[in-house]
């Protein structure tokens, strides 16, 4: 089983360093004793994002039904809702997440064991995902801010007057047209909260991916250790001792898997429901008479929402396959030559792990790549419905 924690903490920290630093940008520190300044800053982030979401809703309710940006406003408010849902879920489940990370760190295999069983590919896969998620979040923030500024400057060039466009269309109780200071306040509020939301989504998704990939790493380690267990070479007591150690390790992983699922269930529900809603409305917007720049912006946001759905389904499928392979190894390893007592212990393990581990939403539905297929079917149906609605 995993050895000294101090010799394996470096690789474990590589799994959590990225999202941990992202959360620090939001004032969230995964410690049991949080300090007052961080708590106040996090509260400021949540309150600011909530205010922007409410102002967006007011803008939708007060705008004319013929407003061409109405659908886009609905998309933006849903995007903010996703981020708020994720950060509130993390704050609510903070103590459980801290426990999960602490327990995962405690059982992380030492570097020698990682090399022996060729487990390094999990960290490499995670680092690639982390690099993509962080850079895509920065790309999203930069592009949307730059697009707003460029459009305003373009109006200055064409009409001789700065456009005063906002990144997020919100209800403005204090008119800002021609008032630079008021405009900058509104623009900064929308820009900063939009950046916070992008970071929240990336960090929460990376924590989910990191926890799931570590669980998969442990299941693969268990599978390989079990396949090495040869009852023809070992004495009965030694074989049973090793099998019991594996059984204890297995029980710990099953318990941890359920805890991880419970920690991120709120985030997964918000992502799947809101992302589906956003994607359908973005497809609807593409059916209209939109400019090329608007199409590009819609496609960027469409990619951002699609990656959330894909990530959750990938995590569920990866955990399912890893735990399933371990269950199969219970049958495949050399148990035939084991003693009756050994086989009895093995039978208890088979009964305990007869079902593979899966992510699920409130015990209602399991999440795998099959879920992604079902979601794509819903997207197709929604797109056809909106096409008929648009042409009616």
From TrEMBL:
One of the record's GO cellular component terms:
plasma membrane
- Establish whether keyword ATP-binding is in the entry: no
Q: Which Pfam families does the record match to this protein?
A: 7tm_6
**Transmembrane segments annotated in the record for this chain:** 39-62, 74-92, 131-154, 180-209, 264-286
Name under which the protein is recorded: Odorant receptor
* Annotated family: Belongs to the insect chemoreceptor superfamily. Heteromeric odorant receptor channel (TC 1.A.69) family.
Which proteins does it associate with, and in what oligomeric form? Interacts with Orco. Complexes exist early in the endomembrane system in olfactory sensory neurons (OSNs), coupling these complexes to the conserved ciliary trafficking pathway.
Record InterPro entries: 7tm6_olfct_rcpt
Is Transmembrane helix there in the keyword field?
A: yes
Q: What Gene Ontology molecular function terms does this protein carry?
A: odorant binding; olfactory receptor activity
Its primary localisation, in coarse terms, equals membrane
């Amino acid at each position: 089983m995993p050895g000294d924690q101090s010799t394996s903490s470096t690789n474990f920290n590589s799994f959590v360093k990225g999202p941990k630093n992202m959360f620090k940008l939001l004032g969230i520190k995964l410690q049991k004793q949080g300090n007052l300044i961080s708590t106040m800053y996090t509260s400021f982030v949540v309150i600011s994002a909530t205010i922007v979401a409410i102002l967006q809703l007011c803008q939708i309710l007060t705008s004319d039904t013929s407003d061409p940006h109405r659908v886009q406003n609905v998309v933006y408010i849903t995007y903010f809702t996703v981020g708020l849902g994720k950060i509130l879920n993390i704050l609510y489940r903070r103590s459980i997440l801290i426990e999960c990370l602490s327990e995962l760190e405690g059982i992380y295999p030492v570097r020698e064991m990682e090399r022996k069983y060729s487990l390094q590919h999990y960290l490499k896969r995670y680092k690639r995902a982390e690099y993509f998620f962080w850079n895509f979040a920065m790309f999203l923030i930069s592009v949307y801010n730059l697009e707003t500024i460029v459009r305003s400057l373009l109006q200055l060039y064409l009409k001789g007057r700065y456009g005063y466009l906002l990144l997020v269309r919100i209800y403005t109780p204090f008119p800002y047209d021609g008032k630079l200071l008021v405009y900058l306040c509104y623009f900064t509020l929308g820009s900063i909260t939009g950046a916070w939301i992008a970071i929240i989504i990336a960090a929460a998704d990376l924590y989910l991916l990191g926890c799931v990939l570590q669980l998969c790493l442990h299941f693969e380690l268990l599978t390989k250790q079990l396949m090495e267990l040869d009852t023809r070479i070992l004495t009965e007591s030694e074989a049973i001792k090793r099998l019991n150690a594996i059984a204890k390790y297995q029980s710990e992983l099953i318990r941890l898997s359920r805890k991880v699922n419970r920690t991120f269930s709120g985030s997964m529900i918000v992502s799947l429901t809101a992302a589906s809603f956003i994607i359908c409305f973005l497809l609807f917007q593409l059916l209209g008479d939109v400019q090329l720049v608007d199409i590009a912006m819609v496609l960027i946001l469409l990619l951002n929402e699609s990656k959330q759905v894909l990530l959750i389904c990938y995590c569920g499928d990866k955990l399912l396959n890893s735990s399933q392979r371990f269950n199969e190894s219970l049958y495949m390893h050399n148990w035939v030559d084991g003693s009756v007592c050994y086989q009895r212990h093995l039978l208890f393990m088979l009964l305990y792990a007869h079902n593979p581990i899966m992510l699920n939403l409130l015990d209602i539905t399991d999440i795998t790549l099959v879920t992604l297929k079902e979601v794509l079917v819903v997207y197709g149906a929604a797109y056809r419905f909106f096409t008929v609605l648009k042409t009616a």
